[in-house]
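ok so I'm stuck.
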Amino acid sequence: MIDIWSSTGLHLPRQLDFTDDVAMPSEETHYLRLTYDSQGSEPIVNGIWAVMARLARIWAEIQDVNKASVEGQLEPILLHARVDSLLQRLDRWYAFLPHFVKESPANLDYYASIGFGASFAALHLGYHYYNEVLLYQFMAENDHNASIPAKAYAERCLHHAMAFCDLLYLSETRGCECLYVMVGHMLVVTSTVYMHILLFSTQEDQISIVRKRLAHNFEILTKLQQYWPPLDTTLSRLKVFHNACQNSIEHSFRMDRWMLKFILEHGTSMPEKFCVPINDTSTMAKSASPEGTNGFNSLQDWYSQTFS
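replied:
not stuck anymore, here's the structure
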């Protein structure tokens, strides 16, 4: 799992192959009951880390599909077929989860009570995020405006972006905050989905909710930054993405090499998408500065003044 995340995040080829002859991790409560003299075989029960390892295989294939799409290896019909296949696999993965591992407040409370709440949340945050990344490119409406499936994909992407934050916020209140570093990257990408709502939604109540969520997301990001200083780079990515939106909303969500780098390479710095001066008349620009997001003392100042 680390190889899938870290190799791609640093723009390196994956180093490990999948294998089916390795036993999955023990179910968590079974593990907690073990003593130094425990004997006998353990029951074959899927716990958090066992199902998470299986989900990681689908994540690797999602990365491969996005790369193939950017490299022009997939015609629209083939792309839709690959996306549909992966969506079905994600749905089957969730459908066959044991009832005690499915996402619910009660299950979150249970795992929090035995010290595995953050791991349980991480499992389902990953599930929502993988759906987002698989479907992210279909938010570029002008690229897929004649495709009915593409509209359904975009709606599902927005649904999982909402569900991602619902779970993240709930974990804060249930004593199992997710403070691991990859939450920062996933939350930045999810926040750009919320930016899409700000740009294109005509529903005032939805826009109001999204603004509040963006503010909460940034609070979480700055808190994570206290534990993980390298998140400075992650936070700056959000500003770079906003700069791109100011230049060209139409092209900001298009899946190209720049976007692929944005959503997958969390361990590298992010260059500006456009080299031309930023258009400060964009509907997202909230600053009088002609550079749009320059001229602020900190990322916190930029964020609060841009999305307040």
